[in-house]
Amino acid sequence: MVLPFIPAVFNAAKKQTLAAASKERSEILAAAEEIKEWIVDIRHKIHEHPELGFECGDTAELVKATLTELGIFFYDKFFAKTGVVGRIGSGNEPFVALRADMDALPLQELYEWTHMSQNKGVMHACGHDAHTAMLLGAAKLLQERYEKKEFEGTVFLIFQPSEEANAGANSMVTDGALMEAQAIFGLHVTPSLPAGACGSRAGVVMAGSSRFGATIEGLGGHGGVPQAAIDPIVGSAFVITSLQPIISRETEPSDAQLIDEMLLKQLRLLSVNLSKARHNRSVLVGYYHWLRPRRYREQYHSRQRGHRWHISLRRSGRRHC
């Protein structure tokens, strides 16, 4: 028998919990608003001095100097060459990690403004300057709450280089940057959401990438006698067309996967026909199945057997993250 007052007690407790959570959220947002300009100033400094790949030494020094200013412990070593890991809390469970990337892209910033890049040919075009500044802002708020004994446990602050290339995350993990973390959180800015909004979903959100390339060789000749030539552009078109059904007909609809043929480059022109063409393609997937690389090879070689082209495959890049 359920006594009639028990549901009312549960509902009252639920309302109190929600009210407390709402109050805490409002307090955190108000505290964040107070340090907004401090965070923006850090972002501007990082944006002015972008760095590539694992060469994020200046950014790492800025991170360490800021953590020192805030009275936050950081490990006296670099992870993945220039990565930094800080720590807030008691050193006891639960262990949670927050992660931000620090590297920029090899692009020239064309828009002239007060804080434009001072490093020629390098630019923070993907928002990693904001990510690093935001994590330092979160560190400041967490340190203040820890000093007031408002949370228990331990938070690791992970500042990672080389997200754009060369699998910096893997190098950070190999070097022990995750420490005892039982959970890890990261985010990425996006222009598709209004300021102040956050988006998430269960499962895959963004794709990782691995790069592959293929060289398709034919035989040059004159446009007036095409039967005496072997056109590699036609071969490239066959290959590109045959790869797409791997996603549309051989992959579960719920799997987040994409094939992107990025570049078809003409290497040498003899009369009208090309003797060689190369296209590099990136395979962007949420996660990898053992089937995929094998199927790519099968599609390429089946085109080679069915026609007169010579096709050679290579893996030309490492997974990004």
TrEMBL record:
Pfam families associated with the record: Peptidase_M20 (PF01546)
Record GO terms (molecular function): IAA-Ala conjugate hydrolase activity
Any single GO CC term annotated in Swiss-Prot or TrEMBL for this entry: endoplasmic reticulum
Top-rank taxon: Eukaryota
Ranges in a coiled coil: none
GO biological process per UniProt: auxin metabolic process
Chain segments annotated as transmembrane: none
NCBIfam families the record matches: amidohydrolases
The name this protein goes by in its record: Peptidase M20 dimerisation domain-containing protein
Organism: Ceratopteris richardii (Triangle waterfern)
